[in-house]
Structures are given as C-alpha cells and as structure tokens.
Amino acid sequence: MFNSGQLKEIELGIQEGLDVTIYAKPEFDRGLMWEIRMGLVGGLDTTIYAKPEFDSEQMCEIRWGLEKGLDVTIYAKPEFDSEQMYGIRLGLGTGIDASIYAKPEFDLEQMREIRWGLEKGLDVTIYAKPDFKWEQMNRIRERLLEEKDDV
Prior knowledge:
By secondary structure, this protein is mostly helical. Helices cover 52% and strands 0% of the residues. It contains six helices and no strands. Helix 2 (30-41) packs parallel to helix 3 (56-67) and helix 5 (108-119) runs parallel beside helix 6 (134-150). The longest helix has 17 residues, at 134-150. The N and C termini lie far apart (67 Å).
C-alpha cells in the first residue's frame, strides 16, 4: 500500500513518461522515489542506486556523481554514509585517485585531509591511516607541505 506522497511521485513519473516500475515499490519512501525519479528525468542509469539499502542522502550523492560523469562505483556502497560519499565524490571530481581514502573507516574530515594532500602532490601514505584523527592528519599534512616548499 502506498501513501499519498509515494502516489504523488508515481503520478509525476507517469506524467513525465518515465518507467515508474523502477521506483514504484513500497520499500521506497517519497524521498527515495524523488531521488530515483530525478535520475530518470536526467537520463541517468539509476539501477546503481535505486536500492532500498540507500537512504535519500546517499542516493543524492550517487546521483550527483552520475550527473558529473564520475565513476560512482567506488562509493555507491551502503557501507559509506552520505558524508563519506560526498568526500569521495569531491576527490573524483578533482581527478585524484580517491581509492586511497575511499574506505569506510575514514570519516569525512579524514578524507578531506587526505584529499587535500593528494591535491598538493604529497605522499599521503604517511598519514592516510584510520588510526590518525583528522587533526593529527592536518598537522602532518601541514608539515609535509612546509618541507615540500623548502625544497
């Protein structure tokens, strides 16, 4: 049984000529249906994120990556929360090798410190370890930047 919000998303999809069978499922709430519908409207392959294990914020991050033409398979995994997906998406968008930090054990702030180091051409393997808090990573990254500038 669908609620009124779900029925509205299904109705909008039908009006837009979309294949609503992709999201017209009781396990998708209105927010999830909206994210899937937006992907379909944009001509995206929504099969990568039209899964009940994702919440709407995760779906949104995956959809945004698809819209930017990124290979979202690196982060389109339920073990990443939406903030982690955001951090990985930012790295992919700048062209760096985000696989170095695309690990569930890193939080968004740790990912940011590693990404910033990669963007500056630093050897981040020195501090890209989950045991370091982001503040520690920041101090190490700053020191590496100073050493690089001195050379």
